């Protein structure tokens, strides 16, 4: 049996390469951010990695109100635990919200709330969509390419005004993507449940709940679910954009 990877002995499953990364919980570094009092950030993906967006886990140690995003920056948040409120509208666990650029509404976090926060410079078409919020449980899963073992829940409307997609993918045990995808969009991904094997370029990596992945443009990518329970992940991609648009 191979030796167990122990963080205190320099072991980690995290892998960071030029075009993709796997970020695993034993390598998380918690930091503070200006304006987010009583809050810890684990910034998993950022432009310093090569991405055009930022993805962070946010953990509230006490109740707080978050500052507005920088000018031109859009946000998407997905609540993992506890409660978040957007101008008084409650967003429970597995609730979500899209905040368009220059949105001044207050985001309030309850004590011990945990969420995933995405931020990116919005690429506007004709009209910037307004804010929205909802619950994942209210969105029916749709088979992906006719495979009812692989279902997608789209949290944003199918509207060319959105420059992104945020989806939750559910794989029954043994289900997989139909083929190795290669495209100019990039992804940020967080495993919510289960796990399996992810292929990125020529790397084949075991993944499980709590793992995060960055996939840069044109990286060959594929996932197959393993185990006895369904596997789910939350995934972002830049969308409705020309490959020549500023990103």
From TrEMBL:
<dbReference type="InterPro" id="IPR011051">
    <property type="entry name" value="RmlC_Cupin_sf"/>
</dbReference>
<feature type="domain" description="Cupin type-2">
    <location>
        <begin position="168"/>
        <end position="234"/>
    </location>
</feature>
<dbReference type="GO" id="GO:0071522">
    <property type="term" value="F:ureidoglycine aminohydrolase activity"/>
</dbReference>
<protein>
    <recommendedName>
        <fullName>Cupin type-2 domain-containing protein</fullName>
    </recommendedName>
</protein>
<dbReference type="InterPro" id="IPR013096">
    <property type="entry name" value="Cupin_2"/>
</dbReference>
<dbReference type="Pfam" id="PF07883">
    <property type="entry name" value="Cupin_2"/>
</dbReference>
<dbReference type="InterPro" id="IPR014710">
    <property type="entry name" value="RmlC-like_jellyroll"/>
</dbReference>
<dbReference type="InterPro" id="IPR044697">
    <property type="entry name" value="UGlyAH_cupin_C"/>
</dbReference>
<dbReference type="InterPro" id="IPR017627">
    <property type="entry name" value="UGHY"/>
</dbReference>
